Amino acid sequence: MNLAVLGATGSIGASTLDVAAAHPDRYRLFALTAHASADALLELCRVHRPKYAVLSGVPGNAALAASFRDLHVELLFGAAALEQVASDADCEAVMAGIVGAAGLASTLAAARAGKRVLLANKEALVMAGPLVMRAARESGAKLLPVDSEHNAVFQCLSDVKAVRRIMLTASGGPFRALALDKLDAVTPDQACAHPNWVMGRKISVDSATMMNKGLEVIEARWLFDVEAGRIEVVIHPQSIVHSLVEYVDGSVIAQLSNPDMRVRDRHALAYPERIASGARPLDLAAMKSLSFERPDHQRFPCLPLAYAALRAGGTAPAALNAANEVAVEAFLAGRLPFTAIPRVIEATLNAVSNSDSMSLESIMEVDATARRKASERIQMARAA
Length: 384
Ligand code: NAD
Ligand code: MG
Hints:
Layout: E1 2-6, H1 11-22, E2 28-34, H2 38-48, E3 52-55, H3 62-69, E4 74-77, H4 80-87, E5 93-96, H5 104-112, E6 116-119, H6 122-139, E7 142-145, H7 148-156, E8 163-170, H8 188-192, H9 201-209, H10 211-224, E9 231-235, E10 241-247, E11 252-256, H11 261-270, H12 302-312, H13 316-332, H14 340-351, H15 360-383
Parallel strand pairs: 1-2, 1-5, 2-3, 3-4, 5-6, 6-7, 8-9
Antiparallel strand pairs: 8-10, 10-11
Helix pairs in contact: 4-5, 5-6, 6-10, 6-13, 9-13, 10-12, 12-13, 13-14, 13-15, 14-15
The structure holds nicotinamide-adenine-dinucleotide and magnesium ion (MG).
Magnesium ion (MG) binds near residues 147, 148, 149 and 216.
């Protein structure tokens, strides 16, 4: 299978390339992309020898292109090249592993072109769920979730009509048990020290605020066509149960494994087959306990904000996502305290008008407006 890995230099990218390298008989690399890290991308091309490489955040550069050409790799520049490789006739599967709104256009292009889309970029469904799902339906694209919870739900789902509830599990992140008055002073490194998973910095902060789970509720709403009222979040600090589906007859089906991203990546890549992942087998008897608790909305105000945006509908989730990206970036840069992240998002949601229009253009317009409002809000907070 010819595979394009969008976001090849990230955490999802690395894990995907591991699978591909372990199964050269199954996967041929068609394209690898990075935003600006030319050296890291060149190194990956040396190992994996794709047909194309893309530097989406770099203008054309002949010297750079020549160093890739030495490896017989054609280097493309600019964001439009992401859509080009994702929809190329020779490309069969696309790992959508770019972080944030920057991944929407290429994910949508892959869905429109009928590819097998390995969906890690949850922000695409948050911003434009109905658009991406319609594109996939019309083209026959197969969307396979790489997000652990959605991958778990996908594995548990047999009869969507008979689903009573989807229960998404959340670890609660690094601050689940921290005294509330200490949250104000947490640092980016503390926020990124996730107890069970090693991931990129943006999703790690999202896990600490639990906006990650909010984004996942919206992702699940579109991916599985189940409305917000039937999607619940439960905290499960051990990250062994990756999510559950309850049916109308009271049966609850869960997917369990040790928290090892190789399990879900192998599943999505090999589906409907199964291949060995190398993950440590689950030893239930050795586990002292599996615990569950309800999320505390005072500690995690981002979660109700995400539900509110989903219920408001239209472009509200796109505004939520944009404000979150801006606030998280400011927090990571030391310009905003952790506890101000939800305040910036709430103020932005109140300041951006909601629209029912679901075109890529109108969504990107709302994204830009929300980014501007969120930045203004952060500047105001700093000036005060
Ligand atoms: P990361 O920060 O490790 O990697 C991000 C990748 O995106 C890099 O290759 C980077 O070059 C590229 N990128 C960044 N900005 C870009 C831009 N403006 N244009 C084009 N490319 C850009 O992130 P990650 O942890 O691998 O997460 C990637 C996506 O997968 C996110 O949407 C995240 O929510 C989702 N996800 C990740 C995990 C995980 O285990 N890491 C789990 C579930 C879902
Ligand atoms: Mg997840």
